[in-house]
Write a structure and sequence with these properties.
The protein is an alpha/beta fold. The protein is built from 13 helices and 15 strands. It has helices at about 45-50, 65-75, 95-110, 120-130, 145-160, 175-190, 225-240, 255-260, 270-285, 290-295, 315-335, 340-350, 375-385; strands at about 1-5, 10, 15-20, 20-25, 40, 55-60, 80-85, 110-115, 165, 200, 205-210, 215, 255, 300-305, 390-395. Strands 1, 2, 3, 4, 5, 6, 7, 8, 9, 10, 13, 14 and 15 form a 13-stranded mixed sheet that branches. It has a two-stranded antiparallel ribbon with strand order 11-12. The relative contact order is 0.18.
Length: about 425
């Protein structure tokens, strides 16, 4: 893969946000001359090296079987798949359909995968025993929300012993786009060459139907607002306007697990913009950091613009407005946000009808780092109590191996 070079970046303490890099070639060929002016080549063996250490988490909620099959088919072969579902169990058990789809895919492709349902009582019991009671709602189950699904996926990834973690939304209609995202993750993590790095995807376009023809929009309705306010946050500190952040709402993103295990994830759709705010809080140099090793190493954030258009389900204006407001909530309540930005956020939210005059934005739920979990207790709880926790090994004759765990690709018993 060939990427445009990144010539500038914005620094915020140890956090180094690189300007958007374009994918120039999906396949850069067999000649590995990385000295081309203005571009960087990541050879196939480097991509494979990262992919063989990567877990791809797919948060899923009520997607059709054909869409899920397409997403699975786009994930590179050497990546381990983790599907975290919050799909309806009644009147039809949609999770059972998803698990069957995943099992069949693994059997046909000779792949391994893990799946679990977000509302499994055994999953909640396992997380509670492992030390994260905050994740459990009043009903005794894991709280609903995308951020919660991503946290579950990260915890499962942490138990595999692999080094990298990527997220891919389950509502992507184009398998080729999924494949490109994963290749971009591998390329970015290779180029970052840091134990504490993140890669965030900016899709090339999001097609919409207008007047009977496709219009390839370059801006997302939610990301446009989120990016504006994250950049304003940076500008208030530097005194210079910036548009460096282009991936505030990037559902498709990846990171080293060394970094991921230190991050605090927000619940719901606040999860992606809060990753930026948590980086600024923990490693921005404004607050005292509990991770001097990260501060000394720096945290590169690479943003990569892909070539494939991003076709996915249109969930409506209410969904988009909710994402916008959750992003502003986490910026407003961050202890490193300056008062001038807080006041501007309130004025904007009042103008949008999201707040009444005199009201304050609500706080989003934020969870402790996955690195604080007792992984051995979590594994024991999942293995003993979570009835939806399944491990598939496509190279095994039965195709499904709930226990013992898959040593080659899945979760080896933790040795923590």
């Amino acid at each position: 893969m060939r990427l445009a070079d990144s010539f500038r970046s914005e620094r915020f303490g140890a956090v180094r946000i690189h300007e958007l890099q374009r994918v120039i070639e999906l396949d850069s060929g067999a000649v590995h001359d990385a000295s081309s002016a203005g571009s960087r080549i990541v050879p196939p063996e480097a991509l494979r090296a990262v992919e063989s250490q990567m877990v791809i988490v797919v948060p899923c909620m009520n997607e059709s079987r054909s869409v899920i099959e397409g997403v699975l088919s786009g994930i590179p072969h050497d990546c381990l798949i983790v599907l975290v579902s919050n799909s309806d169990k009644l009147p039809v058990d949609r999770y059972e359909i998803e698990a069957q789809t995943l099992e069949q895919f693994c059997r046909l492709a000779g792949r391994s995968a893990i799946s679990v349902h977000q509302k499994d009582p055994g999953l909640a019991a396992a997380f509670k025993a492992a030390g994260m009671e905050e994740l459990i709602g009043e009903d005794g189950l894991v709280r609903a929300g995308k951020g919660e699904a991503m946290l579950i996926g990260m915890a499962l990834a942490a138990m595999t012993g692999r080094r990298y973690l990527g997220y891919v939304d389950a509502d992507n209609y184009v398998p080729g786009a999924v494949h490109e995202y994963c290749k971009a993750y591998a390329a970015g993590l290779h180029l970052a060459a840091s134990p504490y790095s993140m890669v965030r995807i900016s899709w090339h376009s999001k097609p919409k139907l207008r007047d009977g023809r496709l219009f390839f929009s370059r801006r997302g309705r939610s990301s446009e607002i989120t990016n504006e306010w994250l950049n304003r946050f940076l500008a208030e500190y530097s005194g210079f306007g910036t548009e460096v952040i282009a991936t505030g709402n990037a559902g498709e993103h990846a990171m080293t697990l060394d970094l991921g295990l230190k991050l605090r994830l927000a619940g719901g759709f606040a999860v992606e913009p809060y990753e930026y705010m948590d980086l600024f809080e923990q490693f921005g140099g404004i607050l005292e950091s509990a991770s001097p090793d990260v501060m000394a190493s720096s945290v590169p954030v690479l943003q990569i613009e892909t070539r494939n258009p991003h076709f996915h389900d249109n969930k409506g204006e209410e969904h988009v407005q909710g994402m916008r407001m959750q992003a502003l909530n986490v910026v407003y309540h961050s202890p490193v946000t300056l008062p001038s930005v807080r006041q501007a956020i309130i004025e904007f939210m009042v103008s949008q009808g999201a707040l009444e005059v005199g009201q304050e934005p609500p706080r989003e739920r934020v969870y402790p780092p996955v690195g604080s979990l007792d992984l051995e207790l979590l594994y024991d709880g999942l293995d003993a109590e979570a009835l939806t926790f399944r491990q598939f090994d496509g190279q095994a004759s039965a195709g499904y191996a709930p226990s013992p765990s898959i040593e080659r690709h899945g979760i080896p018993r933790p040795t923590v």
